[in-house]
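Why does residue order matter? Because the sequence determines the fold. Keep that principle in mind as you read this record.
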Amino acid sequence: MTTTTPPDDVRAGSLPDDAARSAALYTEVQAFYARQAHHLDAVRAEEFAATFAAEGVFAHSPDTPAARGRAAIAEEVRGFNARRFADDPVQRRHWFSMLDVRPGEDGAVETEFYALVVVTRPDAALPVIGPSCVVRDVLVREGGELRTLSRQVTQDRTLL
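Structure:
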C-alpha cells in the first residue's frame, strides 16, 4: 500500500494567509446567507431587512420595483407574501448554492449564487420548485458585521 503525503503548503494548518482569509470569508458569507434565508422563509420582514445596509437595495422580482432602505425592504417582504400567499398557505424555503465570493479592493464583497425557492402546500404531497434564480449581491460591513448593500435577483425564465 502506498501512502501519499501532501506537500507542506497544503497540510492542515499550513494554508497561506490569503487562502485562510478566503476560506474564513467564504464560511462567514455562507453563515450570513443561512441567517438571511431563515428570516425570509419565516417572513420575519424586519429581521430580514436588518441584514441589509441602511441604504440597501433589494430587487427580487421582475414585476416589482427595487425596494430601497430597510423600511421599504421590510414592507416589500410583507407585501409580497400578502399579495402572493394570503389565500394560499405555503411554506417557502430558499436554497442557495454554487456560491462565488469575490472580495473587492474597497472592502466590499461581491457574490453570485443560484437560488431555488421550494414551495410546500398543506394539501400537496410534493413541493414545487419555483422560481430558479441567479442572485448577485454586494456585501459591506457595518459595525464589523456583513450587510447586503445591493441584491439583484434574476429569475431564470427571464434569461431565455
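Residues 83 and 147 are 27 Å apart (CA to CA).
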